[in-house]
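Continuing the series of single-chain predictions for the mutant panel. This is the parent chain; the variants come on the following pages.
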Amino acid sequence: MLPPVVDVEPYGNYKDPTLLDREKMIVELDAYLKSVELFYGMKPVIYTTEEWWPVLQETFDDYDLWIRDVYRKPDPTVKWTFWQYSNRHVLSGYSGNERYIDMNVFCGSEEEFDKY
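Parent structure:
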């Protein structure tokens, strides 16, 4: 079973991390991550944007990172596990309700993904 994912993305006025009560968010996110880990018995993956990772990294660097950046490759100094590189992909043979799908890549080999 793959680990659960916690989505931490900016929205509305919070697209700018400086407008956030960082300490409050870190305390609440820490409690939530711990409760998810306790429930599932495995540490969740944090899904966030490259702009937001510096806000989270100091406290949550021991969590796997699923980075969303559909405009450029992730910073090579950032240790990521998954990367969402597109949110507008058209997949041949796909017949769902959505026209576009997200595309992601795992940072590792097929064997490493199987172990993951």
